[in-house]
Amino acid sequence: MTFTQRYVALGDSFTEGVGDADPASPNGVRGWADRVAEQLILADPSWGFANLAIRGKKMRQILDHQVDAALALEPTLVTVYAGANDILRPRVDIDRLMGEYDDGVRRLRGSGADVVLFTGLDASASAVFGKTRGRTAIYNEWVREIADRRGATIVDYWRLREFQDWSYWDMDRMHMSTAGHTLMAARVLETLNASHRIDLPELAARPALKRLEQVRADAQWAREYLTPWVGRRLRRVSSGDLLSAKYPVLVHPPWAPIDT
Hints:
By secondary structure, the chain is α/β, with parallel strands linked by helices.
C-alpha cells in the first residue's frame, strides 16, 4: 500500500511503549506513539506508521541506527526522544551529547519532515531519579534551543504536571503505565493540533500508605526493579539488546480499525 503521509517514531523505551503491556503487539507493548498513529489513521487512512524505538538505547545508538532508517522511509512526521538513558549514567557530557542530537534533528528536518521533540520529565517526585533533575534541566534548555534553530515542535514533558501523579506510572516507577501512555498520546496529538477520540482514563484513588507500609513497598521495588536495572548497567547490557524495532517498515498496524 502507498502511504502519502508517513509517521516514524524514534527513541528508547519511552517511545517503544514499555509500561503499556499488550501481548498482541510486537515486543509485548503498545505505547503512546502507537496510539497517536491509530488516531492519525482513523482520521486519514493515507497515514503509514513505523516505530523504530527500542528500550535501553542511548543517544548515539538512536542517532546511528534509527535516523538513517527513518530517512529511508521518507517521513512526513517524526517524533524523537533521545538522551534519557545517557542522563541516568554516572557520567555524561551533555553539551557534546546535544551537539550530536542537533545534527540528527538537522538531518531529519532537512528531509522536509515535521519533527517533534520532547523535553525531559521533571523527576523531582522520585527519590532515586530526582537526583538527575539538574542534568535534565540543562538537557531541556538544549532541546528548546535545537527546536528553535531547526524549526521543530516541542512536547513539553517537564511542564506536564499530570505526570507527577504516580497513578500514571508503571510498577517499576521508571516507565509510564497504560494510563500514562494514553495521556501522553492525547498531549502529543494536541501539540500537533490533530483531532482525536482518546478517552482519558479515570484514575483510581491510591490509599496513603503508613510509614512502615511505604518502607516495605520501597524495599520490594528496590529488589524487583532497581537492583536489576543497576545490575544491567554495571554489566553494560540492556533490556533491548535482543529486541528489534516493533514496526521497522511503514504499515497500518493490526490494531488500526480500518480496512486496509
